[in-house]
Amino acid sequence: AQTMLPIYTYPHIFGDDEPEVYYYLDGEFAGSSATLPYLQYLDLSQVSLGAHSLETRVVSNGAQVASQTITVNVVEDVTVIVDGSEIETDSVPLLINDRTMVPLRSIFEALGAEITWDDATRTVTANKDGVTISLTIDSPVMYKNEAGAQEDIALDSPAIIVNERTMVPARAVSEALGASVEWDEADQIVTITSSA
User: Fold this and answer.
1) Rounded CA gap, 181 and 77, in Å?
2) Is the full-model pTM beyond 0.70?
């Protein structure tokens, strides 16, 4: 299982090009960075299974100007099944804010969607059967366009990048493409069934 979790944030403080970012796991200092992308690796090998609080604090000119806390669930490996077949992924699914985050490419390709990535805007777009969805890294909104009608879908866990892989909330993106999703908490299995 993956034990080193890379985390980072992109704060923008008007008038301060180099704020400092501090990370706290369960209230304990876990690391800091003063340069983009404010990367820090959390060693989860000594962290117990279950829910943990991860707080990010942004400091500018000696004063805290922003903070955000999310819940990270440390679990045994999560299994992802799409249309009856277990999906092999190159990044371990994660539970963040009670949402199963899965590697986007593996899931979208298993559902038959075409994927494009815009590095400049950090946005991923998937197309399938006339439905287009787009997600921007760290944005709390996913956009769905079907037959010219756009729908803004709020995400309580935005897309993130972990180990150079885009991780997305399994239920939100799968349902946006017309699939149904079931979560077996006891066995840590996500089952996605496409509508086709």
Assistant:
1) 18
2) no
